[in-house]
Amino acid sequence: MTIQQNNQLTENHDYSKLSVNRSCFDEWIVPTYAPADFVLVKGQGSELFDQEGKHYIDFAGGIAVNALGHAHPELVKTLTEQAQNVWHLANGYTNEPVLRLAKQLIDNTFAEKVFFCNSGAEANEAALKLARKYALDKFGESANKSEIVAFKNAFHGRTLFTVTAGGQPKYSHDFAPLPTGIHHSPYNDLASAEALIGEKTCAVIVEPIQGEGGVIPADPGFLAGLRQLCDKYDAILIYDEVQTGVGRAGKLYAYMHGDVIPDILTTAKGLGGGFPIGAMLTTDKIGKSFGVGSHGTTYGGNPLATAVAGKVISLINQPELLQGVIAKHELFRKGLESINQKYNIFNAIRGQGLLIGAELKGKFTDNAKDIITHANREGVLVLMAGPNVLRFAPSLIIPDELIIEGLKRLEKTIGILV
């Protein structure tokens, strides 16, 4: 067959009508994931349907991404309207949605400057680069102020820089040599962190709640101590709020629950409500170290993404919705405690807002994946945070009746496995 004939076949073939199933993933996709054995095709709110029409209650939320569920009508309207105007511009130009979103974030947080990108990993990459650049600008090359303190079992992304900062060797050891100058302390261990933070430290990066590390909230004293150490040694305090931000913890950002204010905050996941977007928020003083050409991204600040994100922030940053997140947390906790009273399966139930972790024990220790697989069969989607923790990160507006029904399905799953 000639190239011309092959091109003609491709042009005439309507791939939107191509019949696909789960086996196609194994045939065509690089195997970095092992997805469930069904294909989801339709979502509405906190409910999903697969190719066979089977119904699922969504407790996963796209890993804390679908903050307003699936196909929220106002997000659909916003995206459709923007798609009829400007989709994308080169970064030599700006656009209205990105400017409005920047002002929205600045007005509702500590920030004075915003950098937009496409994911949490990119936001953290930008934050770590900015911290080193700021230290270089302020102290000079001879100070060698470039070290970063991070925490074990953290997760900051999959770029080489962020996966090294993450402190989980299972994600980084195959990609050595890794970036240097990054040191790890146990989470919530202020004394250990203090031993690592010093004159050569340019930044400390921390999650207010470790998500992938097991849904472990930081002790308030731990975060306050990190702030004091950063102030003492003129280091940048970076809050990774990729998973905890945009209402997930019951405030617009989790740092708002306490008195500690970071120098840089990273956000993504729920920010776009399902449309890929990330952002790094910081002060004017620190942000100035990123001059023209020092950092960038092709898609960052895309009009489609920023228009949707602006609507997401407007809908979520409302007292009634945020109070509802706290109430739904209690409903989840009571339901999980009821399951635990019956089956004695959880060692601890922890988290904040609608980021909840249930640590397994007994015969279920390290068997989170098995429980999730069986829960899928009962029609409820649940996440894991390591092999020993079930994680729940549903829509922030999931109806109470779906929480109750989803927990009934999870309880049925556990009853089968006991």
TrEMBL record:
Its main location: cytoplasm. Pathway: Amino-acid biosynthesis; L-arginine biosynthesis; N(2)-acetyl-L-ornithine from L-glutamate: step 4/4; Amino-acid biosynthesis; L-lysine biosynthesis via DAP pathway; LL-2,6-diaminopimelate from (S)-tetrahydrodipicolinate (succinylase route): step 2/3. CDD domains: OAT_like. It is found in: Cytoplasm. GO terms for biological process: L-arginine biosynthetic process; L-arginine catabolic process; lysine biosynthetic process via diaminopimelate. N(2)-acetyl-L-ornithine binds at residues 158, 297. The modification N6-(pyridoxal phosphate)lysine is found at residue 269. It is an enzyme of class 2 (transferase). Involved in both the arginine and lysine biosynthetic pathways. This is Acetylornithine/succinyldiaminopimelate aminotransferase. It comes from Thorsellia anophelis DSM 18579. The gene is argD.
